[in-house]
Write a structure and sequence with these properties.
Elements (H helix, E strand, L loop, with lengths): L1 E9 L3 H19 L2 E7 L3 H7 L5 H9 L2 E6 L15 H11 L3 E7 L12 H4 L4 E7 L9 E6 L2 E6 L5 H17 L3 E6 L5 H14 L6 E6 H10 L6 E4 L1 H14 L7 E5 L5 E5 L16 H13 L4 H16 L2 E2 L9 E2 L2 H13 L6
Parallel strand pairs: 1-2, 1-3, 3-12, 5-10, 8-9, 8-10, 13-14
Antiparallel strand pairs: 4-5, 4-11, 6-7, 11-12
Helix pairs in contact: 1-10, 1-12, 6-7, 8-9, 10-11, 11-12
The structure holds 3-isopropylmalic acid and magnesium ion.
Family: Belongs to the isocitrate and isopropylmalate dehydrogenases family. LeuB type 1 subfamily.
Pathway: Amino-acid biosynthesis; L-leucine biosynthesis; L-leucine from 3-methyl-2-oxobutanoate: step 3/4
Organism: Clostridium manihotivorum
Length: 363
Amino acid sequence: MTYKVAVIKGDGIGPEVVDEALKVLEVIGEKYNHKFEYKFLLAGGCAMDEKGTPLPEETLEECKKSDAVLLGAVGGPKWDDPTAKQRPEQALLGLRGGLGLYCNLRPALLYAPLRAASPLKDEVIGDGIDFSVVRELTGGIYFGDRGRFEENNEQYAYDTEKYSVTEIRRIVKTAFDIAVKRNKILTSVDKANILESSRLWRAVVEEVAKDYPEVKVNHMYVDNAAMQIVRNPRQFDVIVTSNMFGDILSDEASMITGSIGMLPSASIGENNRGMYEPIHGSAPDIAGMGLANPLATILSAAMMLKFSFNLQEEAEAIEKAVLRVLEAGYRTGDIFSEGMKKVGTKEMGSLVIGELSSVKVPC
Ligand code: IPM
Ligand code: MG
């Protein structure tokens, strides 16, 4: 079978980490007899430089024609002028909105060999951290009405948090479906003591919950959730929340696992369409130096196989290979600790491929 993948390498370390993920996909293709057809596209700062816009029309159109999108990272100090009309991040919002990717899945998983890299105390980590943040991605304050105006000689700016029942129901149902396949605990995070949109959110969660009697549901205010994630992360299985709360909490969740350089993410829409990217940014300070950790992008490619192409076994082969490389003590700078073997981006990619090559494919 041939899968069409739109590849957006992006800015900073994006190209380096994506290249390693593509090498891994090639090995998967050979081993399991799949063909991946790539279309390389521009988005972000590099697209602003070359095409004068962060998301050229061609990029969005080609992504729509593809089965999935694999993205490195966008942004960097070169384009970081807060007064500028165009910003690289607009490419992400344009892709999310344009492709209808309403569900952002960010697993917070502590890899056992990286335990020491977590900033949390051993007794807090206990037997491990493994939960998933399900973030609404095409609504809320990110897409609501915003603007500036003047009143009584004073400048004002505003942004609007707005959600429809349909938008909430869609993401909440997805989160329940994910919880059913995991440990069946769903925490819905909101600010219902203040926000009207949160009160609606809560009501919809309650309504959808009736269809999932096997899932234990609880509601948590976002400030409390931020605290609970570092106080007792083991209480969580699946967290579902709005676009902005999810943005904030997923960064916190990734941090406690030891390295943001390890975590993949999936943004999924109708018909399994998806965009897959590492959680980390473009890390301009180490761009082009061969130091970046490619594992988050490699694991994002694994998520692509799992969610968009339904290739479970292939995805698990990648995940296992990554775990074995970590168990063998190899580390990029971001996850390095005393006594481990320090490697660069390319070496890390090759190590994963080495492990993959030893996986036996059942005939
Ligand atoms: C993320 C990022 C983006 C977001 C930015 C870069 C627009 O922080 O993917 O979490 O806020 O969604
Ligand atoms: Mg973010």
